[in-house]
Input
Amino acid sequence: MSVALVKQGGEDDAPAPTGTLWLARHAQPLVESGVCYGQLDIPADAQATATSARALAVALPPGIRIVCSPLQRCELLTQTLCGLRADLTYKLDSRLMEMNFGNWEGRRWSGIGQPAIDAWVADFTHHRPGGGESVSALLRRVAGIWEEARAGERTLWITHAGVIRAATLLHAGQRHIDRADQWPLTAPEFGGWTVLNLPSR
Output
C-alpha cells in the first residue's frame, strides 16, 4: 500500500480515507540542540504544542481513536487536542515511547564519542546504544501495537520520530533490517504528521 501525502501542521487537507493510521510527532521539545534524549521525559514547548493541536483539530476526522506515548511531550499535545475536540478521547501506551538510549540519554552526541557511535552503526540492528534498546527491539515493540491497527478504522498515534520511522518500515512489510542505511531518514517535523493507508488483513 502506498503512503499518503505527508502533512505538516497547518496545511489544507482533504478528509482522510477510511482505514487510516495518522502518525503525529510531538512539538519542539525543550532541550538543547545536539542532546540525545530518547525516553528522557522532557517537556515540549507549550506554544508550539498549541499550534500543532489546533492544526490537528481541524484536520482529523470525527471520533478518531487516539493512542499516545506516555512521555509528557506527547501527552501535552494529546490533552491540548482533546480540549479542542469534545469527540476525542485517548489512551496511553508505552509501546509508542521513543527508543531508549540508556546512559546516552541527556548527553550531547558530541560527548558520547565517535567510537561508541561507530560500534552502533556497525551492528545497527542488534547493538544497544548506551546499554538501552536495540533497533530490532524497537521494531518488535512497535509491531505489537501495529498489529492492533485495522483497515476500516481511523487511528491516531501521538508519538516520536523513531516510532514513526519504525511504523513506516512495518507499513512497507519490513519487520527486520540488517544495516543502518535501511533505516528511514525522514519523519514529520516537530508538530507535524503523516497518514498511512492501512492494509487489509
Residues 46-59 form the longest helix (14 residues). Residues 1-12 have pLDDT under 50 and may be disordered. The helical segments are 46-59, 72-84, 109-112, 114-122, 135-146, 161-171. The beta strands are 20-25, 65-68, 90-92, 154-159, 193-197.
